[in-house]
Amino acid sequence: MGGLVVGCTVTPSPRDCACEQVEPGLEPTTEPVAKPVAASDRAVPEPAQLGPRLRILGVAQDGGLPHIGCDCPRCDAARSDPGRASPVASVAVIAPQSRGVWVVDATPDLARQLDMLADVRELVVGGVDRTPLSGILLTHAHMGHYLGLAQLGYEAGSADAVPVYASARMVEFLATNAPWDQLVRLHNIEPSVAEPGGSVALGDGLTATPLLVPHRGEYTDTLGWYLAGPRKRALYIPDTDPWAKWELDIDAALDGVQLLLVDGTFHDGDELPGRDVSEIGHPLMVDTMERFADRLGPQFELWFIHLNHSNPTLDPRSPQRRELEQAGFVIAEVGREYAL
Ligand SMILES: [Zn+2]
Ligand SMILES: [Zn+2]
Ligand SMILES: [Zn+2]
Fold first, then answer.
1. How far is CA 61 from CA 47, 65, 143, in A?
2. How far is the CA of 137 from the centre of ligand 1 (A)?
3. In what order do the strands lie in the sheet with 200-203?
4. Which of 157, 165, 256, 299 could cysteine-pair with 194, CB 3.0–4.6 Å?
């Protein structure tokens, strides 16, 4: 039996779930099981007291935690203790007054990450929600960042025109490559180009503004996203080349930013025996901490996200984690929020 369908509100167990499920070998159905629901029949959550904010939906690198086929101590711990496991890195942006719920990146874990937003989304009662999100802001075409779009397609959520903002190269990539072109053709998603310098309005005075980031680009370029609200401004960069590869002045890019949520894939060079550190396509955490230590303070926080399963700071009792926290840095935690 398949798992829960993206956007379904009936979640206690697969047996109790009345939503549309597609079993292997069966033809998918295009007919929604739920009747169209009038706006007045939607279960509208109470307006949040906390105002516009972001919420962490996952902190793991593209492969997730536990990682496929791995029995390292961190993957083992994640298998035996769900509290140590994590979905792939993503953040939600919540605009409570406008009932807006956006996510940055559509990870392979998108369906359960939507469940983490049940308290702030407008829910369709008793069936599949064809518009489960206000929209998606994509960073790039590596597996952890966009494969979840498939959950919105014909065989799963059969979504109704969910807005997707991405770079021009990424929009072109989606429109011209299978299976993503089908989602575009069937209007499950509505991709739009987000130009660096331009902004997407998310409601409640929130805006998202893309920033071009250097990162391995076989299929598309890579964006970071400024997420700004009436109170604070965050910059989300889950994947980037080491800081030495930045042509843009990162310090200038951080002007007016109070929270940097940034690539914490690897902690240090010892983590990857046999690999030349200079060839690793990510800034090491130890380098990032050195680079931004002087910035830390009441007006600037740095949270690491997108941690590879090999990263020792995933273990809350590791000396590396203790050292990182003593220096004032933070490992992002699933469910943690930040007021924007
Ligand atoms: Zn990634
Ligand atoms: Zn592992
Ligand atoms: Zn990547």
1. 32, 8, 10
2. 14
3. 200-203, 206-213, 222-228, 233-237, 259-263, 301-305, 330-331
4. 165
pLDDT in tens, 176-187: 999 999 999 999
Question: Helix, strand, or coil here: 287?
Answer: helix
Q: Dihedral of CA 198/296/243/148: which sign?
A: negative
Residue 106 tokens read as 């559509």
Structure token pair of residue 115: 């469940």
Confidence (pLDDT) at 323: 98
**CA separation for the pair 138, 208 (Å, rounded):** 11
The amino acid sitting at 300 is F
- For residue 142, pLDDT over 80 is answered with yes
Which ligand has the nearest atom to the CA of 213? 3
Structure tokens belonging to residue 252: 């200038």
**Nearest to 166, CA basis, from 136, 196, 200, 193:** 193
Task: Give the ligand at the shortest distance from the Cα of 306.
Answer: 1
Ligand nearest to the CA of 61: 1
CA nearest to 258, candidates 237, 232, 238, 293 = 232
pLDDT given for residue 49 in this prediction:
60
C-alpha span between 100 and 232 (Å, rounded): 18
The pLDDT of residue 30 is above 70 = no
Contacts within 8 Å (CB) and 24+ apart, 19-25:
19/127, 19/128, 20/128, 22/155, 22/156
Sheet holding 135-137, edge to edge: 189-193, 162-166, 135-137, 100-104, 90-95, 53-58, 337-339
CA 140 to ligand 3 centroid distance, Å: 7
Model confidence at 13: pLDDT above 80 = no
> Which secondary-structure segment (H or E) carries 306?
none
Which structural domains are found in the chain, ordered by start?
43-339 (3.60.15.10)
Tokens describing residue 112: 């359960």
* Residues within 5 Å of ion ligand 3, judged at the Cβ atom: 142, 239
What one-character DSSP code corresponds to residue 36? Answer: P
Ligand nearest to the CA of 63: 1
